[in-house]
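REVIEWER CHECKLIST
Item 1: Sequence provided? yes
Item 2: Single chain? yes
Item 3: Sequence as submitted:
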Amino acid sequence: MTLNYSNEDDRAYGLAGMTISLASLDAIDKVVEISLDAQGPMVTFSQEYYYSLSPAVSPKMVWENLIRNFHITSSMVIANLLARSLVRLGEEIPKDILDEVYVEIEAEGADTCGLEKDEIEAFYNKILMQNRRIFGNPRLRPAIAELAGIISRKRNMSGLELRDQLTLLQL
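Item 4: Structure as written out by the authors:
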């Protein structure tokens, strides 16, 4: 699934949402850098984010890492959309867009993690609820908007710079 952005401001809010999602999942330490100008993914992860197919790694650990990464990336997509809609535009995400996202998450959960439909639905609802609590909180919206502005001005930030900025903004 490719997320389309209406302009650079929209893109900055989306990236801010993704980084806040990473912080909420204690996964921000896996970020090497973010780039508003990236042609591909705007978030670059460290090698520890990716699982190893080494024979020394147990199948259980590989599966747990797949589930964790599925959780992270699914949450990033939802957070991207919520930051852009709830925070930037002050409106709900259209249902048809959420339905499209759900279809993608369902396919990824089944293909990558072998999850059943009911497991994926529960997983999706949990992610959506967690992110709605963050991006629907009116007290956090000014800090989210400020982070989007910082990302827009700086264009690129290392993982360390990003962590420092999130701490300063108390996000």
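Item 5: Key structural point noted by reviewer: The longest strand covers residues 31-35.
Item 6: Recommendation: ____
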